[in-house]
Write a structure and sequence with these properties.
The protein starts with 7 loop residues before the first strand and ends in a 21-residue tail after the last strand. 31% of the residues are buried. It has helices spanning 37-47, 74-77, 92-95; strands at 8-15, 26-31, 56-59, 71-73, 102-107, 113-122, 133-138. The longest helix has 11 residues, at 37-47. The chain is built from three helices and seven strands; from the N terminus they run ββαββααβββ. The radius of gyration is 16 Å and the shape is globular. The chain has one domain: Structural Genomics Hypothetical 15.5 Kd Protein In mrcA-pckA Intergenic Region, Chain A (Roll), CATH 3.10.290. It is α+β, with helices and mostly antiparallel strands.
Length: 159
């Protein structure tokens, strides 16, 4: 399949662990046509104001990533054992080719943030628009660490 030069559009939904999306926050983003899965993950995570500071993977099983038949993991790119290929050299157009196609983006294997990434097709962008960018933002999201009670107590400690 030939790669398109037109930016691509994705809907990123912060789902619950069972894949539920009703009433959940989402972002619609545009990324460059030649973007890698790593670039897509970075744009998706940053669209929710999270820091890309943990490992992640894309999986074809939305409800149980451990049973995925297709996947792509950062682990493979950083030299760790992985049963799937990496994300840094895999172009989005080789993975996403059908509108409404979905993969799970699992971010931070300790906390397990579940994002459903749905391919929407070509994006309409203004000439000169910097990519990636957020097209639409719906719903309030969570703090990356605060919602799980992780606090930075280092500054509060006295010696």
């Amino acid at each position: 399949m030939a790669a398109t030069k037109q930016p691509q559009q994705f809907k990123i939904i912060l789902s619950d662990p069972s894949g539920g999306v009703r009433g959940r926050p989402y972002r619609t983003i545009a990324v460059a046509a030649g973007a890698s899965l790593y670039d897509l993950a970075e744009a998706a995570i940053e669209a929710f104001d999270f820091d890309l500071d943990h490992a992640f993977g894309f999986y074809d099983n939305i409800t149980d990533w451990t049973r995925a038949e297709e996947g792509y993991e950062l682990f493979a790119d950083i030299g760790q054992e992985s049963r799937f290929p990496g994300v840094q050299k895999v172009a989005i157009h080789t993975v996403f080719h059908t509108p409404k196609q979905k993969l799970l983006l699992l971010f931070d294997y300790g906390v397990c943030w579940h994002f459903i990434v749905q391919y929407l097709g070509a994006a309409e962008v203004r000439p000169g628009q910097q990519l990636p960018y957020v097209i639409e933002s719906k719903g309030e999201t969570y703090e990356q660490y605060d919602s799980f009670g992780v606090e930075d107590d280092w500054d509060d400690e006295e010696e």
